[in-house]
Design a protein that fits this description.
The protein has 336 residues and is mainly β. The chain folds into two domains: 6-244, no CATH class; 255-335, Immunoglobulin-like (Sandwich). The chain is 5% helix and 40% strand. The protein has helices at residues 6-11, 151-157, 189-193; strands at residues 36-42, 52-53, 66-68, 74-75, 78-79, 82-85, 93-96, 102-111, 114-116, 127-133, 140-150, 164-171, 177-181, 200-204, 211-217, 222-224, 230-231, 238-244, 258-261, 268-273, 281-287, 292-296, 303-307, 314-322, 328-335. The strands form five sheets. Strands 1, 2, 9, 10, 11, 12, 13 and 18 form an eight-stranded antiparallel beta sheet that branches.
Length: 336
């Protein structure tokens, strides 16, 4: 489990995951450059409509499921193929690469020991589900924890009064990560979070040497590169966004790296990309109102042709993006 008091740890036989090794990991594992930017926004909460429910209306604790990521997505620069629940928590997901290997990089939307609120009654009342939306190049994987409770409260008090709802969204377009928080009522915070000030939220590996975790008040947290916990709990309708930094990552991604001809173009556009590893890049073409009219998420050559004969006449923008760093460049083309 993620959050547990010392007194609870002494009486429980439940296995503690790495997040409770506080003394060992108190050192500041700061990096020279933070890979992710964090922003706080708000939205109107909406439960997922007709998602795939992986808890299958069964009472659960310590879920051990795997959720596929059916598009190119990079977690701290590593392409992942699926997300696996780590035993002992309930909302800590580890990236699994295409070969099935664990990446030791975790996404944590709400670091607490999550459990089905019906655990004591044997009647399921909480669920974990997911849904894939969008089209090629713009997919979003949505994962939802609905009406979930907390193991510490059930174990210590025999009640399941507290609950929360939250979602994790992964974006294909730029490997952005969003945590979206819904209705919640969390009482007995000292029981639920133990000696900690609130949940752990963010991205980290197991020894915190690569960490992008939030600290400070939940209403205005800041990004840290060490083990950290927020103070309080996220407000309903809050959106925590983690986005790969764009500036200063790929020094070779310049305007001259993207060439195309002819311009203006009538039927076929010849594209040349002068980068060292073109497979790390994706390409899109947008029309003048921002709609994607062409998408290639897996470039297999640095020179190729694009048929634009069906495009309406007008101005378009061709964009090249580094899928690992999220740095992008854009150039204008004119379709005759």
């Amino acid at each position: 489990m993620l959050m547990v008091s010392v007194s609870y740890a002494q009486k429980s036989e439940k296995k503690l995951p790495f997040f409770n090794n506080l003394e060992q990991n108190q050192l500041n594992n700061s990096k020279e450059e933070i890979t992710y930017d964090f922003t706080l926004n708000s939205t109107i909460w909406d439960f997922l409509h007709n998602p795939t429910v992986i808890t299958n209306n069964q009472v659960w604790d310590d879920p051990e499921f795997s959720i596929p990521v059916d598009f190119d997505f990079y977690l701290n620069g590593i392409q992942i193929d699926s997300l696996s629940f780590r035993s002992g928590g309930g909302a800590e997901l580890e990236g699994i690469d295409a070969s099935g290997q664990e990446t030791d990089m975790f996404i944590i939307p709400f670091g607490a020991d999550i459990i089905d609120r019906g655990y004591n009654t044997s009647v399921a009342s909480s669920e974990i589900s997911y849904k894939l939306i969008g089209s090629e190049g713009s997919h979003i994987l949505q994962i939802q924890w609905k009406n979930v409770g907390f193991y510490n409260e059930i174990d210590s008090l025999g009640t399941s009064t507290s609950y929360t709802n939250f979602q994790l969204w992964l974006f294909e377009a730029n490997s952005k990560i969003e945590f979206i928080y819904g209705p919640r009522s969390i009482e007995n915070k000292p029981v639920i979070f133990g000696s900690f000030t609130g949940p752990m939220i963010g991205l980290t590996n197991s020894d915190f040497s690569t960490s992008f975790l939030l600290s400070g008040q939940a209403t205005n947290p800041t990004l840290m590169n060490s083990q950290a916990y927020i103070v309080g709990i996220p407000n309903a309708n809050a959106v925590y966004t983690f986005e790969l930094k764009i500036v200063g990552v790929e020094e070779n991604l310049e305007k001259s790296d993207l060439q195309f001809s002819p311009n203006p173009v009538l039927n076929e556009l010849f594209v040349s990309i002068d980068v060292s590893s073109f497979t790390n890049y994706s390409m899109r073409i947008y029309n003048s109102i921002g709609q994607v009219v062409y998408s290639n998420q897996s470039l297999n050559s640095n020179q190729f042709n694009i048929d634009v004969s069906d495009f309406d006449a007008g101005i378009f923008y061709i964009e090249l993006m580094d899928k690992i760093s999220a740095k992008k460049i854009s150039k204008k083309i004119v379709k005759l």
